[in-house]
TrEMBL record:
Residues 29-68 form the Sleeping Beauty transposase HTH domain. Residues 85-153 form the Transposase Tc1-like domain. It comes from Oncorhynchus mykiss. Signal peptide: none annotated. InterPro entries: Homeodomain-like_sf (IPR009057), HTH_SB (IPR057667), Transposase_Tc1-like (IPR002492), WH-like_DNA-bd_sf (IPR036388). GO terms for biological process: DNA integration; DNA transposition. This is Uncharacterized protein.
Length: 199
């Protein structure tokens, strides 16, 4: 691909090179304007750039009429995929970690992120904050059933009360046995409790 020297066919070429130096924190931007008609090889030798890069920029200018980078729509992500993986790993190791703790950890590394962003990242990875519901042993329906039972059988004699309380005791003994089993009680203690509960 060659370019003639006449001004009508000459292509203005804006080459942007990024040179990162050790002393400078930001890369230095060099813009070179090339309007003379010459081949791609000559331009690449003159500017010390690869020929393929020069060809890409020329084709882009011919197609779009500019060499400015075409930005995508929308705001760029604040957190990189690596930061997201770090947050998810921290929560998986310690599930009691709050979103505020994660935001503070990111601020220490130099990334300032709102609290909603941290929550959104965790929610995207199916990590949702939930607190266990505290359920009482006797719920409202149990209390109502006991009250109904007491009002229905309130006029009976004391022998019926002893029989019904015996039923209640058996229920509580079952609960006591369950707590022993679940919290690692010994079998000997369990057997002795069973013997005591039986009349």
């Amino acid at each position: 691909m060659h370019f003639k020297a006449d001004l009508q066919n000459s292509v203005p070429l804006f080459l942007t090179l990024w040179e990162i130096k050790r002393n400078q924190p930001r890369p230095q931007k060099k813009i070179v304007d090339h309007k003379s008609g010459s081949s791609l090889g000559e331009i690449s030798k003159h500017l010390k750039v690869q020929r393929s890069s020069v060809q890409t920029i020329v084709c882009k200018y011919k197609h779009h009429g500019t060499t400015q980078p075409s930005y995508r729509s929308g705001r760029r992500c604040v957190l990189s995929p690596r930061d997201e993986r770090t947050l998810v790993r921290k929560v998986q190791i310690n599930p009691k970690t709050t979103a505020k703790d994660l935001v503070k950890m990111l601020e220490e590394t130099g990334t300032k992120v709102p609290l909603s962003t941290g929550k959104r990242v965790l929610y995207r990875h199916n990590l949702k904050g939930r607190s266990a519901r505290k359920m009482s042993l006797l719920q409202n329906r149990h209390k109502k059933a006991r009250l109904r039972f007491a009002t229905a059988h309130g006029d009976k004699d004391h022998t019926f009360g002893e029989m019904s309380s015996g039923l209640m005791k058996q229920k509580y003994n079952c609960l006591a046995i369950m707590t022993i089993v679940t919290f690692g009680g010994k079998r000997g203690r369990l057997a002795s409790r069973r013997k005591q509960s039986q009349p």
